[in-house]
């Protein structure tokens, strides 16, 4: 009696369990079913994510679209369980499937945009109304000009003239770890977003160039190698960002896609090596942290060996996380040197703190954690951190220069004091010995001064004679500087007065020996309001011509002036006529002036 009852209870329990399992299986199938993305004018920007992309790994790498469309293969697609699917196996080709419900009533033009600019081979298969597929190929393995839109990302314009629900396929084959980031945008949103993004790129790369030029000027000024290392580090960072953003492919090597296989890894290697070399020299690691100095040298050697291995096996470039080692070594060295009392190291540590934060965010992005707030700020977080790092390290460089100046002054001060003591002791000894010599020197100086005055008087007298030639005249007025100085002394012999506002105060003007009024700013040249104003012949020859005209009382011919001064006769005739006219007009005034009368002709009466 008991046995039938137990059997009945067991059968009921089994039926209930099967019913529950069927229910949960139905729910799981519903949950795991691929979601369809609807085109909606109210949502101009949409990123495909969980449940909207199905993935299939082709380990053979030989499957074509016809193979994929077969039910036996198509049924193997799995619903994406990550925010953005990735190609974890570099040797495989990855297929992605997603569905879009079109809307003919939409009043906008729609685009599909595919991120991750490092994809080598990217193929998009677009269905038409007849169920046929059209292939569009792009990626870093193809020349840049093959793209439909000349944009760093892969962009395809949708045909949205029906209400059909279409299934799209993507095939990705890449030697690096990439993400299948698919975005649906209307074209207005895309243009706005693209312009803002390229503006950001321009600002970022402009700052890299500005900081590089600043440190290059520092290197040229003080010739210290750390500034050159930092210039090379900044440029390497800029090239790395350009390579990873696709900007380098678009603008630097659009027709050489082979460079894309090495660009990111090569620039990342250069940034690590030059960053460590800058750390060595800037923080004086060999003196202040000898153990860390040896560690840095070892890291540079190992990093170089790893780079050589990457050249022969480009798949190794995917291990970007290895850059955390040089970063941590430089960061640790900065902390150690800062604690030892070197103040500029604090800015270095703060700058590298931002760099470390940006690097950690990049690592979190690689693992696509669900709690991470995805967006432009997170995506470009490393670029922002690079800017802060460059700014703070520039502060560190500036403070190191100030410390260097103070150190030089401190080091030189005792040496100067010691040298002054030695000089004073020697001077005291020599002073007694030179008492007699000093008195004799005083007598000799007096004689020399008188002799100099006599020679100058004789020379001036000779110059003012009627027989002096131009070579001898040039001994007193040899060049433009001497003539301008003489004109300045002659013109303002009784003081300066502005011709515009009668102000008495002046500053140096634009031309030599000219004077500029401090009140109205009028700049008066030294030849203004003189006989030489607007003269087109050398001023020293003009001096000599005036002297000859005056000393011959205007009787010298223009032919003779031309022969003496080696100036065209027509020019000499024009100046001779002008000077003879002034000489005639001021004849009475010049009667008693003697040998200096020629200089009285220079200033034009007000």
How would you characterize the overall build of this protein?
This protein is α+β, with helices and mostly antiparallel strands. Helix 10 packs antiparallel against helix 11 (345-367) and helix 18 crosses helix 19. It has 4 domains: 1-32; 37-191, Immunoglobulin-like; 224-408, no CATH class; 456-600, no CATH class. It starts with a helix and ends in a 6-residue tail after the last helix. It is built from 20 helices and 14 strands. The chain is elongated. The model is unreliable at 1-6, 12-32 and 455-467 (pLDDT under 50). Helices cover 56% and strands 11% of the residues.
Indicate the topology.
Blueprint: H1 2-32, E1 36-38, E2 45-47, E3 54-58, H2 65-68, H3 71-74, E4 78-79, E5 93-101, E6 110-114, E7 121-127, E8 133-138, E9 154-157, E10 165-173, E11 182-186, H4 187-222, H5 225-245, H6 247-251, H7 260-282, H8 285-288, H9 290-312, H10 324-339, H11 345-367, H12 376-379, H13 381-433, H14 435-463, H15 470-476, H16 480-491, E12 506-508, E13 515-517, E14 523-524, H17 539-551, H18 558-565, H19 569-585, H20 597-600
Parallel strand pairs: 1-5
Antiparallel strand pairs: 2-11, 3-4, 3-5, 5-10, 6-9, 6-11, 7-8, 7-10, 12-13, 13-14
Helix pairs in contact: 4-5, 4-13, 5-7, 5-13, 7-9, 7-10, 9-10, 10-11, 11-13, 14-15, 17-19, 18-19
């Amino acid at each position: 009696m008991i046995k039938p009852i137990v059997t009945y209870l067991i059968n009921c329990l089994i039926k209930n369990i099967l019913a529950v399992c069927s229910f949960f299986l139905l729910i799981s199938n519903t949950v795991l079913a691929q979601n369809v993305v609807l085109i909606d004018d109210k949502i101009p920007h949409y990123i495909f994510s969980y449940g909207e992309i199905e993935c299939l790994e082709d380990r053979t790498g030989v499957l074509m679209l016809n193979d994929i469309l077969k039910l036996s293969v198509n049924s193997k697609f799995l619903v994406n369980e990550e925010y953005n699917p990735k190609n974890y196996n570099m040797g495989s080709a990855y297929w992605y499937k997603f569905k879009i419900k079109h809307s003919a009533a939409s009043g906008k033009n729609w685009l599909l945009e595919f991120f991750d600019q490092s994809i080598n081979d990217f193929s998009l298969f677009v269905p038409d109304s007849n169920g046929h597929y059209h292939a569009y190929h792009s990626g870093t393995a193809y020349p840049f000009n093959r793209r439909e839109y000349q944009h760093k990302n892969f962009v395809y314009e949708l045909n949205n003239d029906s209400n059909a629900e279409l299934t799209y396929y993507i095939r990705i084959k890449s030697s690096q770890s990439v993400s299948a980031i698919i975005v649906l945008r209307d074209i207005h949103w895309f243009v706005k977003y693209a312009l803002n993004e390229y503006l950001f790129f321009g600002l970022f790369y402009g700052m890299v160039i500005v900081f590089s030029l600043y440190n290059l000027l520092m290197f040229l000024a003080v010739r210290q190698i750390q500034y050159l290392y930092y210039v090379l580090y900044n440029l390497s960072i800029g090239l790395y960002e350009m390579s990873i953003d696709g900007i380098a492919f678009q603008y630097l090597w659009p027709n050489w896609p082979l460079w894309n296989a090495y660009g990111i890894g090569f620039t990342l290697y250069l940034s690590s090596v030059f960053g460590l070399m800058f750390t060595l020299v800037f923080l004086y690691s060999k003196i202040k942290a000898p153990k860390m100095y040896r560690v840095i040298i070892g890291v540079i050697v190992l990093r170089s060996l790893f780079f050589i291995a990457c050249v022969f096996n480009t798949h190794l470039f995917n291990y970007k996380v290895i850059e955390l080692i040089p970063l941590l070594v430089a960061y640790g060295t900065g902390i150690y040197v800062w604690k030892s009392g070197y103040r500029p190291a604090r800015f270095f540590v703060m700058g590298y703190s931002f760099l470390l934060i940006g690097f950690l965010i990049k690592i979190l992005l690689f693992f696509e954690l669900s709690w991470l707030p995805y967006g432009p700020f997170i995506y470009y977080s490393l670029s922002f951190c690079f800017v802060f790092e460059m700014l703070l390290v520039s502060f560190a460089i500036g403070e190191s220069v100030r410390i260097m100046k103070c150190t030089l002054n401190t080091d030189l001060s005792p040496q100067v004091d010691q040298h002054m003591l030695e000089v004073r002791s020697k001077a005291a000894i020599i002073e007694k010995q030179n008492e007699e010599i000093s008195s004799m020197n005083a007598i000799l100086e007096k004689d020399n001064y008188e002799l100099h005055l006599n020679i100058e008087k004789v020379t001036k007298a000779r110059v003012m004679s009627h027989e002096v030639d131009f070579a001898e005249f040039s001994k007193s007025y040899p060049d433009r500087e001497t003539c301008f100085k003489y004109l300045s002394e002659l013109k303002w012999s009784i003081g300066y007065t502005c011709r515009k506002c009668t102000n008495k105060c002046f500053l140096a003007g634009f031309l030599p020996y000219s004077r500029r009024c401090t009140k109205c700013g009028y700049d008066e040249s030294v030849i203004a309001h003189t006989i030489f104003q607007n003269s087109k012949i050398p001023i020293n020859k003009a001096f000599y011509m005036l002297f000859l005209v005056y000393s011959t009382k205007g009787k010298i011919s223009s032919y003779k002036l031309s022969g003496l001064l080696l100036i065209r006769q027509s020019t000499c005739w024009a100046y001779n006529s002008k000077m003879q006219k002034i000489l005639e007009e001021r004849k009475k005034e010049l009667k008693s002036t003697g040998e200096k009368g020629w200089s009285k002709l220079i200033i034009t009466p007000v």
